[in-house]
Q: What sequence folds into this?
């Protein structure tokens, strides 16, 4: 069976590495022609995952045709803001028989769609789409550290198939029938992680981060349930699990954005200092718009948006959160 991994960033490269033993043929599509050529020669993604050698039978290509031809499973791992464009370019080689899996964590600006909805709107036909998420740092996944993720689909047979195909000794996959909850959890946890980075950057202590994670989980759950997700999903790997990792781990890009904001750096300077994408930056405004449409309150997300848009300083955002009117914990 052939697997096509579409997206040669750190996460796509790590997934290709960990899934290589499960497939007789695997092609990693890399958008940048010069990077694709270097990886072909050196077997190392020196920009996004330096120090990790790709397994020998992984083919690396800049051609979508080469990557997708005869692929039975397509795993897309591109940044959320280019998902629509890349899938539009993929269309000539996609077939209804292909199993599509999205590992992108984000929401589309303008449409407010989840990534599986973006894909469905592009491909037109009603092929089932699975989504993969959970607490994962690419570097640790590629190194073979024990990792647990969740794959979700409305089609439970598809989720079960991907679970079986992707699971291995160091990569345990759980199945879910709640793609809405899995995608919302994966998208919004990045926003809360920016707040956690701000808190740590201001040396506010462990109490503050614990409170932020807990109340952040409440916001994730509130929006996910309003969109039709099961609240139980938000207590799992794609909700609480990913939230804790992204808010506390030093490898978290979004937490690093918060740390830099607390240090007084401007957003453009922060984003220009790395080729990596911090999905939470783009997700924040979209999540707020989606919450407004659903009549849901997301105070942490709102304050992070104010900081990112330079309407408030990090200190002012923290003060606003702490001075909100008192309420029940379940509100």
A:
């Amino acid at each position: 069976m052939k697997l096509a991994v579409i997206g040669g960033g750190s996460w796509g490269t790590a997934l290709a590495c960990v899934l290589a033993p499960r497939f007789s043929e695997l092609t990693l599509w890399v958008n940048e022609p010069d990077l694709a050529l270097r990886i072909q020669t050196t077997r190392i993604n020196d920009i996004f995952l330096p120090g990790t050698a790709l397994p020998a039978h992984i083919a690396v290509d800049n051609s979508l045709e080469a990557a997708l031809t005869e692929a039975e499973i397509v795993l897309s791992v591109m940044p959320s803001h280019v998902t629509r464009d890349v899938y539009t370019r993929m269309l000539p080689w996609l077939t209804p028989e292909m199993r599509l899996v999205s590992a992108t964590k984000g929401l589309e600006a303008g449409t407010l769609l989840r990534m599986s909805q973006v894909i469905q709107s592009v491909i037109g036909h009603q092929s089932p789409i699975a989504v993969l998420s959970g607490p994962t740092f690419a570097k640790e996944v590629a190194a073979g550290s024990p990792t647990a993720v969740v794959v979700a689909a409305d089609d439970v047979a598809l989720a079960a198939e991907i679970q079986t195909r992707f699971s291995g000794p160091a990569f345990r996959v759980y199945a879910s029938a709640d793609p809405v909850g899995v995608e919302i959890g994966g998208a919004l946890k990045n926003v809360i992680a920016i707040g956690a980075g701000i808190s740590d950057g201001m040396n506010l202590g462990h109490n503050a981060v614990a409170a932020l994670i807990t109340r952040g989980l409440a916001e994730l759950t509130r929006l996910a349930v309003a969109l039709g997700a099961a609240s139980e999903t938000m207590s799992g790997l794609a909700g609480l699990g990913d939230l804790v990792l992204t808010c506390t781990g030093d490898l978290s890009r979004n937490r690093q954005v918060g740390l830099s904001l607390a240090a007084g750096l401007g957003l453009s300077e922060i984003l220009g200092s790395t080729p990596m994408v911090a999905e939470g930056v783009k997700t924040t405004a979209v999540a707020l718009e989606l919450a407004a449409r659903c009549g849901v309150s997301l105070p942490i997300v709102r304050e992070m948006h104010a900081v990112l848009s330079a309407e408030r300083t990090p200190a002012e955002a923290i003060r606003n959160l702490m001075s909100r009117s008192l309420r029940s914990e379940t509100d």
Remarks:
- The chain has two domains: 2-177, 180-322.
- The longest helix spans residues 179-201.
